[in-house]
Design goal:
With 161 residues, this protein is an alpha+beta fold. The protein has one domain. It is built from five helices and eight strands; from the N terminus they run H-E-H-H-E-E-E-H-H-E-E-E-E. It is globular and about 40 Å long. The two termini are 24 Å apart. The relative contact order is 0.27.
């Protein structure tokens, strides 16, 4: 029995998966501290979206359309957003990140470990809100956090939440 792919679901909604990327957001172990132990701690405080905008090196192509997933246990991920990303000049952090007192420790942890800190701006894109909560199995290795959305290994993982 063939499992449905993310590309199949997107096609059913009139979207070409080949034009999109999928990103699995997880908390880097060296960024974690007593307040932020997992990506779910960040999501609970509305900081997961902020954290996805901090990358070690240029990860997202400029102006890329990204399906944003939160990493879950067991190699699954849950869709939480659809955004366009804009790379900033290397080392130039957005003010909303720099001046967020709740995020300061995590920002310092990130800057301390990143070899090439890159910051992004992002804007929400319309059209896929009905899919938020969709769960997929992430292809191995899960450490490859950015995939093309038409990757055949991105398969539905069961019930959405």
């Amino acid at each position: 029995m063939t499992q449905e792919t993310l590309a199949d679901v997107l096609a059913a909604h009139g979207v070409d998966a080949g034009a999109l990327f999928a990103f699995r957001n997880t908390l880097h172990p060296r960024d974690a501290d007593a307040d932020w132990r997992s990506i779910h701690d960040l999501a609970a405080s509305d900081h997961a979206r902020v954290y996805e905008r901090l990358q070690d090196g240029l990860l997202f192509p400029h102006e890329a359309q990204i399906l944003c997933f939160l990493g879950e246990a067991g190699g699954t991920a849950r869709l939480v957003g659809f955004r366009r990303f804009f790379a900033r000049r290397p080392g130039v952090a957005p003010g909303d990140i720099v001046y967020d007192p709740d995020f300061a420790h995590l920002l310092h942890n990130f800057i301390g470990r990143a070899r090439r800190p890159i910051f992004y701006d992002s804007v929400d894109l319309p059209g896929l809100d009905a899919l938020f909560g969709l769960r997929v199995r992430w292809p191995r290795p899960c450490a490859t956090r950015l995939r093309r959305a038409d990757h055949p290994g991105l398969r539905l993982a069961g019930n959405s939440s």
